[in-house]
Amino acid sequence: MPELPEVETLKQALSPLILNKRLLELRFLRKDLRFPIPSSQLRKGLLNQTVSKLTREGKYILVHTPEGALLLHLGMSGRVTQSSSIKPVEKHTHAIFQFEQETYLHYIDPRRFGCLLWIPKGQGHPLLDGLGPDPLGTEITAKGMKLVAGNCSKASIKTFLMDAKRIAGVGNIYACESLFAAGIHPQRPARLISTRQWELLLSSLRKILEKSIAAGGTTLRDFHSTDGSQGYYKLSLAVYGKENLLCPVCSTPVKRFMQSARSTFFCKTCQKK
Length: 273
What we know:
The chain is of the alpha+beta class. It has seven helices and ten strands.
């Protein structure tokens, strides 16, 4: 699944393509993705409107116009690609956007877990209302996370990191990588993480996310930028996907186990319980 760096990479790639441009045509090739596509609302709010800004909240991209905002999520396998034509060229193309200056964007999602929704001007959306603080923002603090985690009696620190209601946008890859960088075992109860450990963890998470964004994200399966290019942060991964390979710090073989139906990668020497 595309995580925060991949979504931020997409937002940054989309900005020069569509910012201050008017949407001329909008086509939908199916009626639903994860949720029904509100095609009439999207056409009313987007057609002949100029994109005023693009923002990101967690793993969601918002394309703003004077009437409101398109809420876009990539789900498990979604992509937005730039094309030379309004005609679909790939299987699983579900929506096509034609902007001024012959700019064509195709929304492609084989597994159909993504979404295209509409937020009227001045309104919120249930998918965004419960999101936790952004790990790259200024609102998130070690003291604040320590306080929130203290109320979680059972959640492990990795499960806590991946809960969008606690921290927005962190998925499996960056949870594993940041916990390794901070030397924290992924099964350690979140309520037992000290303020000092939270400071180290949030600092590690921020650095890793920023490096991944600079590298264009991590391409492991489905994610590509709008021009089809792949992110190369996967070359910098320390433990994720490295089962039985040597830890880059201590040379202990990296271990993998299942945690909340996800593969967790860690070093038993560097990340002690």
